[in-house]
Structures are given as structure tokens and as C-alpha cells.
């Protein structure tokens, strides 16, 4: 793998250098490179076809992790023994510890790719205020967190050498402000422990046999594994799971909302501080308007709660706290006394971006040029602080940060992430029907569930080894007895 990484660096250097060459020469080189790459790929695929449907037997007991995202990398680190999980939390292994045999299968060309885009490339790794109540299926999450408290995730990263700092609202980031640093520490630990990283390997199914689990791919199957951790993220897990594992349908959440009833086209691509409310729940944050809806953290968090047809309320005043809870009239009456507006445009100027002011006035049935009228103030205040928007649905499902749904929590042991029906099969991360708000909660779940699954898979392997040793001892004892018996019979005859 070290070689692969080296090649990757070399390629990026070449890519960098290519910018300074003449375009024609550059194009020729690109074509030549493409040709070589295609030839190599054809060669590989030809080799795979001849090996087609072959079974590759893993010697000795082992663990497979499917998916090299957040949950899979953490599971591989812990399952291999690069981090031990003891009663009081994670610890580094002793110098004479033996690492366990772990293979990590990843469909993409590199592990850790989904982590790189998180937190706009900075990776909002966790939240200092993480609590089970923030998550869907909170009772299940509470049980998982009783086994792996949030502090243990921080401890695990700290032992791996990652320095983390805390920003507003408990959001935690690596001090480098680069998601690559998070991937680097996880991969370094994993590779040090000898985890075999297999990229470009999309697992299509699992096969359960008396000797263990087999991981099936288009070019054959590998196994048997004593334990398999499925960490394939939100969408793909269902293909791999046995058919009778109960799954909740998938639904994109933490995504922009599509809105009806108010024309938001004039404020397309604009941002404004706001309070966005649904029923009793309010989110303070920045609204990012689209022509068909509203995006930004507040809208993302509300998207976890609403269904099409629900009404949400937008308070657009920047001093939102001062205008919430019925304080709006006092706030705007005071403003009118201070600035003596001649028109409604005067009332908006300096407080709202001009186009944001326009949609407020239009909602109130007012126009910028109309003379300011104290009697119309309640309608204006209502529009500015209680603009009702009807949710049509998720505006852009492809941009959803998380998929709700996946393996039903009733099918999983929350302390180990093992499927109750299938001993030795574990599921972690977004594939479990657990999701949380923005702010580091979803990655936290991926780390915590990956850690639990990795530790339990390691335990399963240890148990299997002990059982195998016991069987081997019994076999040896029986063989010895069988050898002794003829000798004894001989003695008896004499
Ligand atoms: C743009 C964006 C920004 C985000 N920012 C944040 C943030 O800042 N903080 C936060 O907490 N959360 C954030 N999230 C959510 C967070 O990224 C996910 O909750 C988290 O990555 C889920 O981890 P996972 O390991 O379960 O799945 P993933 O990270 O999706 O990893 C799954 C891996 O499995 C591989 N895979 C899939 N199928 C197969 C197969 N059949 N065989 C082999 N490999 C397979 C995939 O290629 C992938 O590498 C963000 C999400 C997005 C999209």
C-alpha cells in the first residue's frame, strides 16, 4: 500500500507539472497515459475473468470490514488491535501484542474518500455536546453510548495522535482544519497493524457457511471470515445483507428544502441569519436561499423533522432573538421611532439585504415605495418574523448529507452492533437506522458504532480461536488415546 500511496503522490506531482507544459504536448501525454491506463485495466480485467468465480481461501481465522469510510476505518483500526478497547476505554496495544488479520474491502480507488468532503473539507469530526437525545432511535443510541461514551471516541483519536479543537456550538475539528489529517491518522494506524486494504473491490453479497462468512465479488469470493463488519454507508448496505434482515426504507435528510407558497426567486443564492421553526422546534442559523427553496444548516436540521405539506416558519430579522416570542412589534416600533422612516424601504434599509426586504414586504402585501404607515406595522412584523413556508419536499436529494433508514435497530445488539439473527455479522455507521443533526453528530455515530463493531468482531475472533484450540486439543487427546488403546490391548493380551 505504501507503494500505491507513493504512486499517487507521484501522479499528483505529474499533474501539477503538466500545467506548465505546452497544451499540445500536454494533450499528447494525457492521451498516452490514458492508453497505458486502459491497457492496464484491460489486462487486469482479463486476469479477473480467468480467475472468475474463484474462491480465495483465507488461511487462519480473520475479520473482513466492508467499506472504508468513517465507520469502516474505525472498525478496522480496532478489530486489528491497532487500538485495544478495554473496560475503561481505548488504549494503545502493548509492544508484544499480536495484531489480528483484517481485510478492508473498499469499492472506490481509495479508503477514506467520504470523510474528505465532510465539514467543507475541514471534517466536523464530532460534537462536544453529543447526547443520545439528538439522534433518531435515541433509546438504541443511549445503549450504544453506555458501552462507548462520547469521550471514548475523543480518547481514541487522541491515542492515534489527532489533535482536535472545539468551535461554536461544540463543533470539533482537527487542528489542521483538514479532513485529510483525520484519514491519515486512521490509515496509518490500520496499515501499521497490517490491515490489508483492497481498493476497487465492491462486495456484492455475503455467503454464510458452517466454516464462516465468505465475501463475494464479481471475480470470486474470499473467506472464510469469523466476523464481517458491514460499513458501506447509507445507501448500499441492503444489497449485501441477508434478505431477512429488517430494514427501514431510505430517505434523504440533512438536505435543502423545496418550498411552496412564497416566491424565493428574488433572493436566490442569498444568505441571511434566521430562525427556522417547525412546531416547537427552532433552529438559529444562516438561511441560504435557492430559487425553489431554502438551504443551510438550519434548513438541513429541519429537514429531519418535516414531511411534504408541513408548514415551517421563517423569522428573517437578523436580531432574531429580540424579535422572537412576540417581541417583534416592540422591536420594530422602537426602530420606527428611532429612524422615522418615510417609506417601507426606509424601514428595511440597513436591517435587511434589499431583496430580502422585498420578499418580506411582498409577503405583507406592501411595496417599497409605499409611505410608512404605523397601522400596517403588525402585517410587516408578521411577515418579517412569521413567514409561513409550505414544505414540498427535499429540494436536492443528491445533496443530502445523510440517508435516514437502513438496518432496523431492533435487529442489532446495541453494545456490539452484531445482528441478532446472524452471529459474526456486524453493521456500523449510516447503514444503521440512526441519524443526527448537523454539527458532528453523524460522524460521531460512525466512529462510535465502528469502534463497538470492531471491538466485538475482535472478541468474536478471539472466541473462535479459543474454541478451535479447544477442539484441536480434544482431537489430539483422542488421537493419543486411540494410539494408547492398541498398545494397552497388546499388553493385556500378553
Ligand atoms: C457533503 C457532506 C458533508 C458532511 N459533513 C459532515 C460533517 O462535517 N460532520 C458529520 O458528522 N457528518 C457529516 N456528513 C455525514 C457523514 O459524512 C456520514 O454520516 C458518514 O460519512 C457516514 O459514515 P459511514 O462510514 O457509515 O459511510 P461512508 O462514509 O459513506 O462510507 C462508506 C464506504 O463504503 C464504501 N462502499 C459502499 N458500498 C460498498 C461495497 N458494496 N463494497 C465495498 N465498499 C463499499 C463506499 O465507497 C464508502 O467509502 C457529511 C456528509 C456529506 C455528504
What does it look like?
- This protein has 494 residues and is of the alpha+beta class.
- It has 15 helices and 22 strands.
- The chain has a six-stranded antiparallel β-barrel with strand order 15-18-17-16-19-20. Strands 9-5-2-13-22 form a five-stranded parallel beta sheet, with helices on one face. Strands 1-12-11-10 form a four-stranded mixed beta sheet, with no helix packed on it.
- A hairpin with a 4-residue loop joins strand 7 and strand 8.
- The longest helix has 53 residues.
- It is elongated.
- It binds flavin-adenine dinucleotide.
- Flavin-adenine dinucleotide binds next to helix 3, helix 4 and helix 15.
**Strand percentage:** 15-25%
Q: Tell me the helix content.
A: 40-55%
The tally of structural domains comes to: 2
Low-confidence runs of at least 5 consecutive residues:
1-22, 45-52
Q: Mind telling me which CATH architecture of the largest domain this is? A: 3-Layer(bba) Sandwich
Largest sheet: 6 strands, antiparallel, barrel
Listed once per kind, the bound small molecules are: flavin-adenine dinucleotide
CATH topology type of the largest domain: FAD/NAD(P)-binding domain
For the secondary structure, the number of strands is 22
Which strand order does the major sheet show?
A: 15-18-17-16-19-20
> Which class of the largest domain in CATH terms?
Alpha Beta
Rounded Rg:
29 Å
Classified in CATH, the superfamily of the largest domain is FAD/NAD(P)-binding domain
Oligomerization state of this entry? single chain
Given the structure, what is the number of helices? 15
**What form results from the Cα inertia axes?**
elongated
Ends apart, CA distance between termini: 66 Å
Question: Based on helices, strands and strand pairing, what is the structural class?
Answer: alpha+beta
Amino acid at each position: 500500500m505504501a507503494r500505491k500511496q507513493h504512486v499517487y503522490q507521484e501522479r499528483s506531482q505529474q499533474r501539477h507539472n503538466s500545467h506548465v507544459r505546452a497544451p499540445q504536448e500536454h494533450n499528447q501525454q494525457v492521451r498516452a497515459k490514458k492508453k497505458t491506463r486502459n491497457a492496464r485495466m484491460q489486462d487486469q480485467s482479463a486476469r479477473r475473468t480467468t480467475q472468475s468465480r474463484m474462491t480465495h481461501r483465507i488461511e487462519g481465522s480473520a475479520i473482513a470490514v466492508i467499506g472504508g469510510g468513517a465507520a469502516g476505518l474505525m472498525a478496522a483500526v480496532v478489530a486489528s488491535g491497532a487500538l485495544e478497547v478495554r473496560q475503561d476505554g481505548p488504549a494503545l496495544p502493548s509492544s508484544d501484542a499480536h495484531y489480528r488479520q483484517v481485510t478492508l474491502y473498499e469499492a472506490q480507488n481509495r479508503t477514506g474518500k467520504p470523510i474528505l468532503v465532510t465539514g467543507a473539507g475541514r471534517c466536523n469530526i464530532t460534537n462536544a455536546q453529543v447526547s443520545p437525545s439528538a439522534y433518531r432511535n435515541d433509546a438504541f443510541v443511549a445503549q450504544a453510548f453506555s458501552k462507548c461514551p462520547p469521550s471514548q471516541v475523543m480518547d481514541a483519536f487522541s491515542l492515534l495522535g489527532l489533535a482536535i479543537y472545539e468551535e461554536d456550538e461544540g463543533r470539533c475539528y482537527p487542528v489542521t482544519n483538514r479532513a485529510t489529517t483525520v484519514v491519515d491518522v486512521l490509515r496509518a494506524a490500520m496499515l501499521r497493524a497490517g490491515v490489508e486494504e483492497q481498493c476497487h473491490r465492491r462486495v456484492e453479497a455475503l455467503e454464510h457457511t458452517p466454516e464462516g462468512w465468505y465475501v463475494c465479488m464479481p471475480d470470486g469470493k474470499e473467506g472464510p471470515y469469523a466476523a464481517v463488519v458491514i460499513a458501506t454507508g447509507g445507501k448500499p448496505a441492503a444489497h449485501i445483507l441477508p434478505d431477512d434482515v429488517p430494514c427501514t426504507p431510505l430517505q434523504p435528510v440533512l438536505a435543502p428544502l423545496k418550498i411552496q407558497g412564497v416566491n424565493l426567486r428574488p433572493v436566490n443564492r442569498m444568505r441571511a441569519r434566521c430562525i427556522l421553526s417547525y412546531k416547537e422546534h427552532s433552529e438559529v442559523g444562516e438561511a441560504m436561499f435557492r430559487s425553489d427553496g431554502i438551504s443551510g444548516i438550519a434548513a438541513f436540521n429541519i429537514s429531519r423533522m418535516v414531511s411534504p405539506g408541513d408548514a415551517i416558519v421563517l423569522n428573517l430579522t437578523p436580531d432574531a432573538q429580540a424579535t422572537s416570542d412576540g417581541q417583534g412589534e416592540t422591536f420594530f416600533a422602537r426602530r420606527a421611532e428611532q429612524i422615522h422612516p418615510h417609506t417601507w424601504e426606509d424601514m428595511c434599509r440597513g436591517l435587511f439585504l434589499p431583496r430580502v426586504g422585498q420578499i418580506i414586504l411582498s409577503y405583507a402585501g406592501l411595496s417599497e415605495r409605499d409611505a410608512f404607515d404605523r397601522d400596517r406595522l403588525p402585517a410587516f412584523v408578521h411577515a418579517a418574523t412569521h413567514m409561513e413556508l409550505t414544505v414540498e419536499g427535499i429540494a436536492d436529494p443528491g445533496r443530502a448529507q445523510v440517508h435516514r433508514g437502513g438496518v432496523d435497530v431492533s435487529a442489532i445488539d446495541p453494545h456490539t452492533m452484531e445482528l441478532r439473527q446472524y452471529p459474526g455479522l456486524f453493521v456500523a455507521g449510516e447503514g444503521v437506522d440512526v441519524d443526527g443533526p448537523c454539527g458532528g453528530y453523524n460522524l460521531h455515530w460512525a466512529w462510535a458504532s465502528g469502534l463497538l463493531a470492531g471491538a466485538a468482531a475482535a472478541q468474536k475472533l478471539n472466541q473462535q480461536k479459543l474454541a478451535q484450540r479447544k477442539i484441536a486439543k480434544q482431537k489430539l487427546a483422542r488421537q493419543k488415546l486411540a494410539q494408547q488403546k492398541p498398545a494397552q490391548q497388546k499388553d493385556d493380551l500378553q
